[in-house]
Every structure is written in C-alpha cells, then in structure tokens.
Design a protein that fits this description.
By secondary structure, this protein is an alpha+beta fold. 21% of the residues lie in helices and 26% in strands. The protein contains 2 helices and 6 strands; from the N terminus they run H-E-H-E-E-E-E-E. The protein has a 3-stranded mixed sheet with strand order 2-1-6, covered by helices on one side. A 3-stranded antiparallel sheet has the order 4-3-5, with no helix packed on it. Helix 1 crosses helix 2. The chain binds zinc ion (ZN). Zinc ion binds next to loops.
C-alpha cells in the first residue's frame, strides 16, 4: 500500500510548512500514473495523521490526467488506457510526459484565530523529484 508512504511524506511536508498551526485542508495534485486510489489515500491519511497535530485535517485530492507531448509535431494528447507512448497524431516516438506523474502539495488551509470567513493562509511546497521527463512509472 504505497499510499501510506505517500501520506507520510505529505504529512512531513505539511508540518514543515505550517508548524503548530491547526490545518484544515491539505490540497494535493496527483497524476493518474501514480496509480493512487483516492479512497485508499484518504484512509491512509487518517491513519498516518492520527494522534498528530494534523489529526482532523482533510485531504483534498485533485487527479490530473497523463499528457504526452510530441516533439516532432508539437501535439499534446491525453495518454489513453492502452498506455502507448507513441504520438497518436504523427506516430513519432519522440515524446515526453508533461503531466501524470505529479505528487504535489499545492496548498494548505490553516485555521487562524481571526475569523475571516475565508481561506486565510496558503503555503506551497513540492514533493518528490521534479523529474517527470520520459521515464515510465515503475509500477
Ligand atoms: Zn506527433
């Protein structure tokens, strides 16, 4: 269950960003090639943050499609279920993934003592290697 280790990394990053402030919502972008199951991810999150300062923080997952960009013809196409890495427009193999392998903490909503009625504070941090060029996911 790799969701648990993803949640551990995530919790550590959130804690670094927010310190001891009370976190309400954690926003994460997940590329579909990560093969994260949202329900499993939320379950793992509750398990990982239980008995920590992050207990009660909600996980907001946004799944991003896998997109293949062709260097030969310049087209970007969504990767289909067949997972072919050739350009579907011109057939070139000179392609790279521009989306689909992300696992990024995009924002954290924290509670402040002054009720503003809206999201008060947002922090950003990035997880994992930034390298999303070409390599197939080792699933
Ligand atoms: Zn092409």
């Amino acid at each position: 269950m790799h969701e648990v280790s993803l949640c551990r990394q995530l919790a550590a990053a959130v804690t670094r960003a927010t310190g001891d402030r009370e976190v309400e919502v954690v926003h994460v972008d997940v590329g579909e090639l990560r093969q994260v199951v949202p329900e499993a991810m939320r379950f793992a999150w509750t398990f990982v943050v239980k008995d920590t300062l992050l207990a009660g923080a909600r996980l907001d997952l946004r799944q991003l499609p896998a997109v293949l960009a062709c260097r030969a013809c310049g087209t970007s196409t969504r990767l289909g279920p067949e997972l072919g890495f050739d350009c579907r427009v011109c057939g070139s193999t000179d392609t790279s993934l521009t989306s689909g392998e992300q696992f990024v903490l995009t924002a954290v909503d924290v509670r402040t003592s002054i009720p503003t009625g809206d999201r008060a504070d947002r922090s950003e941090a990035h997880l994992g290697k930034g390298d999303r060029d070409g390599a197939l996911p080792s699933a």
